[in-house]
């Protein structure tokens, strides 16, 4: 009888053991992941881990064309707001970079903060959760501060709501920050003090808005140069020290610089009338590299293998329908050419997201 019991217990053990030993049933904490935010992250400045680099998502937005309302909506809906929170892991860094009238070397990163965890759930079950041993209930307010700063920088207020007024906008958010400032110092601010405080807040956040308030016509469109700059300039903190890196580019990809131009008016993508009476826009990479200046430039500046470790790209391809210079055929040829250019640079992990047709015609 004892032998029978031992046999039954043995087989029960074999059935139950895999359940407890299987890693899918337990939380795997990444190496260096902050367990206690007050000890392990820079929670008063940028919410980034002190002793680890977990991941980095860097957003490059092309402002060399005067973006239309639905282009801005496409960018914000695809890259910012709720999608940024949902697609960025806790404590992974987030940076914004412009392409505008300045050269790539003049650009500086915007925001450059880490995505603070939400504080929802138990830390033993989810990386978003609060560690009751050393964090208490303090994570959720800090995540709220992160969302407010993100909303003010990207001018996207879909992330923040007030219990009484609903979704906030710029003015309501500034007013809320002023009220919270007074509460933090346990004082009743009179009307004059509130107006002065709001004035200072407007000045501060006006200077930190990522989307420019007005369009400044550029002398070029340094898309390639900006991509290379963020990969090799230490100031952008986008090196292969991060085990996960994603570059999100929102652009029509009309690259224009002296040595590498895909302009539709006087560059490689200028329309050419073929013998068949059809228009040809951008050709293939082989044709582009027949220009010795462009080939030497790309060969001298393209990234090395080390710079491309742990690296992927997502392109939010802006609709060409607004320009009198381009059309859907031109956009299609531009995209095909860039697939080859990325491959030539050594970048193979590329995802494409095309903007939908806005159903408008350019006013030429």
Distance between the termini: 94 Å
Structural class, by secondary structure, is: alpha/beta
Shape: globular
What name is given to the CATH topology of the largest domain? Rossmann fold
Largest sheet: 6 strands, mixed
What is the top-level CATH class of the largest domain?
Answer: Alpha Beta
Spell out the CATH superfamily of the largest domain.
von Willebrand factor, type A domain
- Stretches where pLDDT is under 50 for at least 5 consecutive residues are 16-25
Structural Rg: 25 Å
How many beta-strand segments?
Answer: 12
Structure, described:
The chain is built from 11 helices and 12 strands. By secondary structure, the protein is α/β, with parallel strands linked by helices. It has 2 domains: 37-113 and 141-155 and 214-364, 3-Layer(aba) Sandwich (Rossmann fold), CATH 3.40.50; 156-208, no CATH class. The strands form 4 sheets. The protein has a 6-stranded mixed sheet, with helices on both faces. The chain has a two-stranded parallel sheet with strand order 4-5. A hairpin with a 5-residue loop joins strand 9 (272-273) and strand 10. The longest helix has 20 residues, at 2-21. The model is unreliable at 16-25 (pLDDT under 50).
């Amino acid at each position: 009888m004892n032998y029978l019991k031992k046999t039954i217990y043995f087989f029960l053990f074999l059935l139950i053991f895999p359940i407890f030993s299987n890693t899918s049933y337990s939380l795997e904490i990444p190496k260096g992941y902050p367990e206690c935010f007050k000890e392990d992250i820079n929670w008063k400045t940028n919410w980034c881990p002190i002793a680890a680099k977990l991941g980095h998502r860097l957003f490059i937005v092309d402002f060399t064309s005067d973006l239309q309302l639905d282009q801005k909506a496409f960018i914000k809906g695809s890259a910012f707001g709720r999608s940024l929170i949902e697609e960025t892991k806790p404590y992974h860094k987030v940076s914004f970079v412009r392409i505008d009238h300045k050269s790539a070397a003049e650009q500086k990163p915007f925001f450059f903060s880490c995505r603070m965890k939400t504080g929802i759930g138990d830390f033993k079950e989810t990386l978003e959760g609060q560690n009751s041993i050393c964090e208490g209930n303090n994570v959720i307010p800090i995540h709220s501060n992160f969302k407010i700063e993100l909303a003010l920088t990207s001018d996207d207020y879909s992330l923040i709501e007030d219990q009484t007024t609903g979704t906030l906008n710029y003015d309501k958010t500034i007013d809320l920050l002023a009220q919270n400032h007074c509460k933090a110092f346990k004082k009743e601010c009179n009307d004059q003090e509130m107006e002065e405080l709001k004035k200072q807040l407007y000045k501060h956040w006006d200077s930190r808005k990522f989307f420019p308030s007005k369009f400044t016509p550029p002398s070029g469109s340094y898309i390639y140069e900006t991509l290379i700059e963020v990969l090799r300039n230490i100031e952008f903190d986008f090196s292969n020290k991060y085990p996960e890196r994603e570059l999100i580019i929102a652009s029509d990809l009309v690259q224009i610089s002296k040595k590498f131009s895909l302009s539709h008016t006087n560059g490689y993508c200028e329309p050419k009338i073929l013998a068949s009476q059809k228009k040809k826009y951008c050709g293939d990479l082989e044709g582009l590299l027949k220009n010795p200046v462009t080939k030497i430039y790309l060969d001298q500046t393209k990234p090395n293998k080390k710079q491309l470790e742990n690296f992927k790209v997502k392109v939010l391809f802006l609709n060409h329908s607004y320009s009198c210079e381009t059309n859907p055929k031109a956009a299609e040829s531009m995209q095909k050419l860039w697939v080859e250019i990325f491959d030539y640079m050594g970048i193979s992990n590329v995802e494409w997201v095309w903007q939908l047709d806005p159903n408008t015609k350019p006013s030429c």
